[in-house]
Amino acid sequence: MYPEYKLNNYFSNMKPTLLILAAGMASRYGSMKQIDGFGPNGETIIDYSIYDAIKAGFGKVVFIIKEEFLDNFKAIFEPKLAGKIETGYVFQNFDLKQFGIDIDIPREKPWGTAHAILAGRNEIKEPFCVINADDYYGFDAFQKMVTFLTEEANGSNYSMIGYEIGKTLSDYGSVSRGVCKVDDAGYLEDINERTKVLRDGDAIVYEEDDKQHPLAPDTRVSMNFWGFTPEVFKVTEDLFREFAMANQEKPKSEFFIPLVAEHLVKTNKASFKVVPTDSKWFGVTYKEDKPIVQDSIDQLVKNGTYPENLWN
């Protein structure tokens, strides 16, 4: 199921795949934000990510969704993408037997982002990247990820797009950010989740233990844009089995991609190149975010970054 790929040149003629995390329940948003319209013709945020991915050189897009979303997703994306990029659909669900776990563990929410990417393990045979459905990443990030996946990626060398924290903040309150510690060679040493990052005048700070700690505006943070080869599926499945068994009594626990990255780095099984981008990130969590995202996309259309009718 998991072929061993050791040589970079094995992947050199393969177009990478874009894997989109779109199975979330969007409970804080109040509806399916993954397919909500934000562009001038009702384009979703996913539309802009796929447009940039095609332009950058990706050859396939795979949607990780709940099975009941399938008809909606196909109706929205197949007419737009036909002839432009190959498409695939995989399902994140609660079936643990597929991972060799023979007990039932009651859950209301999915198991998290690292569990989600396992849904693609039988669909993806080429280098791939993972993104969130409800985040805008910018073309520069996709272009740099394609370069990494086609020229540098192998089973022990992965990547993460590193955004400048000052270009990811909200003007309307604090946010959580995975703050990266990067070594002199540009590789990830650690990610610290800061749950309350905000602007304080001209400064950027995170709050912890009732104290404020400064962060430089160019501090690199993870916005869940990761680059892998198929070898990651085997180690992720092994880690998920351990995680599920250890968290049987914790129905809200989630198995996140940074947990896999941390394991690989700490055990010296793989390194993660932090690929810097100057792109501005924006995303949608609450319904109140919608007009802000719509305005951001409108500005990108007005300055010529995207055509007014994206798929015409």
Report what the structure shows:
This protein has helices at residues 45-56, 70-81, 113-117, 139-151, 232-246, 257-266, 290-302; strands spanning 17-21, 60-65, 86-91, 128-132, 135-136, 157-164, 175-182, 188-200, 203-208, 211-215, 220-228, 271-277, 282-283. The protein is α/β, with parallel strands linked by helices. The protein has a domain at 11-154 and 222-256 and 279-302: Spore Coat Polysaccharide Biosynthesis Protein SpsA, Chain A (Alpha-Beta Complex), CATH 3.90.550.10. The strands form two sheets. Strands 1, 2, 3, 4, 6, 7, 8, 9, 10, 11 and 12 form an eleven-stranded mixed sheet that branches. A two-stranded antiparallel ribbon has the order 5-13. Helix 1 crosses helix 4. The longest helix is centred in the C-terminal third of the chain and has 15 residues, at 232-246. It is globular. Mean pLDDT is 91; it is low at 1-8 and 27-31.
> How would a textbook summarize the main sheet?
11 strands, mixed
- Roughly how much helix do the residues carry, as a percent range? 25-40%
Helix-strand sequence: EHEHEHEEHEEEEEEHHEEH
- In the CATH scheme, what's the topology name of one domain? Spore Coat Polysaccharide Biosynthesis Protein SpsA, Chain A
How many strand elements?
13
- From the alpha carbons, calculate the radius of gyration and give it in angstroms: 19 Å
Mean pLDDT: 91
Low-confidence blocks of residues: 1-8, 27-31
> How widely separated are the two ends?
39 Å
CATH architecture of one domain: Alpha-Beta Complex
CATH homology group of one domain: Spore Coat Polysaccharide Biosynthesis Protein SpsA, Chain A
The CATH class label of one domain is Alpha Beta
- Anisotropy-based shape: globular
